[in-house]
Amino acid sequence: MSYSKRISRPYRWVGLLILGTESLLLVAQIPAVIPGAAVSSPQFQPTPEQIGDSLMAHQRYQAAIEAYKGAPRDSAQTLNKMGVAYQLLFNNEEAGRCYSAAMKIDPKNSIAINNMGSIYMAKKDYSKAERSYRKALKLDPKSALFYKNLGTALLAERKYEKGWLSYQDALSLDPTIFDHSTSVRVENPASIQDRGAMNFYMAKSCVKAGMTARAIDYLRLALNEGFTTPKKILADAELAALRSVPAFQQLLASQGVYLTPVAASPAALPSVQQ
Fold it and tell me: Which of 155, 156, 250, 257 has the most CB atoms within 10 Å of its CB?
């Protein structure tokens, strides 16, 4: 499976990273490709960081790392970007070193602190990940991304209600935080049970935010991953608003639970003779 397919697959247990350019605020977007006109200009001399950003946009992560190595080594922003490139190559050790170096240069760099949290998540050190995300939130309390990552760490620690509350905070700041197509995502080796928990509480958060279709998608995943059952779903007051939704009824029907009367088949109807 290619790196790009593994990174972009939707609805997976993921950690979100931030590259840390001035033009990016809450989501981990790939930097824009250097405009072709500027590249062709004889007067334009791209910096190593700009070259690295362009290579990142084309998913040439190893080449991007080599380009970033040519940038000044006292730049927390460049070190963070290099860490993201290493992590997208699944080299978490080098990624962690880059994030640590960035934090030494700039201890209040919330972006590097958030990204370090994703390293702890990959190592299943969820308590350290939680602390990283909380520290990042103290520096940037309006980041939907940080709340989302904190919620994921809390769910991994089985702190389900707290995780759900963090997801709600994330959605209140950015209703689209769970489906940013431009986010840099790195899969974490969480258990099926943990992914099921995440999907179940994401469903509850989506119901609260009025995103019915997405909530049903997450419930389907939670059911498939064995975290919940139709009985538990029907007993959950937060999910009661879905009962009149046909797609929700169809989901439960696929599990053998019918909220509406099942139409009798023609063979079961009384027959008459004329």
Answer: 155
**CATH number for position 129:** 1.25.40.10
Whether 263 is in a domain gets the answer no
Query: Do 76 and 9 fall within a single domain?
Result: yes
Kind plus residue range of the DSSP H or E element containing 14: strand 14-17
Note whether 116 and 103 are within 8 A (CB).
yes
Which residue from 120, 125, 110 is spatially nearest to 186, judged by alpha carbons? 120
Please state the φ and ψ torsions of residue 142, each to the nearest 5 degrees. -105, 15
Token reading at 175: 């209703």
Instruction: Give me the residues paired with residue 164 across strands.
Output: none
Average pLDDT across each block of 10 residues of the chain; the chain has 274 residues. List them in order. Answer: 40 62 33 45 81 94 96 93 95 97 97 96 94 98 95 92 93 84 58 82 88 93 92 93 94 90 48 45
**250 shares a domain with 170:** no
Domain termination residue (choose one: 133, 165, 190)? 190
Q: Which amino acid is at 50?
A: Q
- The residue type found at 146 is F
19 neighbors 56 (Cβ within 8 angstroms): yes
* Total domain count, the chain: 2
In a domain, 128, yes or no: yes
Query: Which are the contacts of 177, defined by CB distance < 8 A and separation ≥ 6?
Result: 26, 27, 144, 145, 148, 170, 171
CB neighbours of 101 closer than 8 A, spacing ≥ 6? 79
Tell me the per-residue pLDDT of 213-225, one tens digit each, with 9 for 90 and over. 999 999 999 999 9
In this structure, are residues 136 and 114 in contact, taking their beta carbons and an 8 Å threshold? yes
Which residues span the domain enclosing 241?
191-258
